[in-house]
Prior knowledge:
Elements: H1 2-39, H2 44-119
Helix pairs in contact: 1-2
Amino acid sequence: xxxxxxxxxxxxxxxxxxxxxxxxxxxxxxxxxxxxxxxxxxxxxxxxxxxxxxxxxxxxxxxxxxxxxxxxxxxxxxxxxxxxxxxxxxxxxxxxxxxxxxxxxxxxxxxxxxxxxxxx
Length: 120
């Protein structure tokens, strides 16, 4: 049980790390692009056009990165959900086995008690 919890925690940390990395890359790219454009020796019109072009490219890259991260997060969620489902089935089977074992164990005593009460 502890191993499954640790595994889920590791998977969650992995997904969070991936999101943090994607966010850091996007932010770094944006800052670098803006800094480069602002320090470039060009006319204002050219710079504005370049900023607009780069911002559109960055928007497209951001959309692609977000979609990729969302797909990975969805896959991890399905994987974790499947693991939890398997654990629940296993626990249900164990519980049923214990109940059956206890029924077998106590059934003769219950029958003996019924017979004793009816005979008295």
